[in-house]
Design brief:
Blueprint (H helix, E strand, L loop, with lengths): L9 E10 L3 E8 L5 E8 L9 E12 L2 E8 L5 E6 L1
Antiparallel strand pairs: 1-2, 1-4, 2-3, 4-5, 5-6
Length: 86
Amino acid sequence: MNEIREVDRFECRVVNVIQNLMWKGVTVEEKNTKGRVYFSRVNGELNINYGDTLYFGIKPVYEVEDKTMQVTLYDAENKKLDWTLV
């Protein structure tokens, strides 16, 4: 069994961007599984558009309100853009 490590990165594609006053809501889709994750507080000044390639990392966490994974969104330079619990 392959264990997911915090340093692992998975390529994903931006499938939706919602511009708010200060933030962007960004939905990404992992290219192999087609699983989607929504990130609600991506810096609104960043140039992120539909179809862009980003990356996310997954880190197992202790169960918090039925959530067991922390998913972090990164750009191509490995800069952290946002995170969420799933």
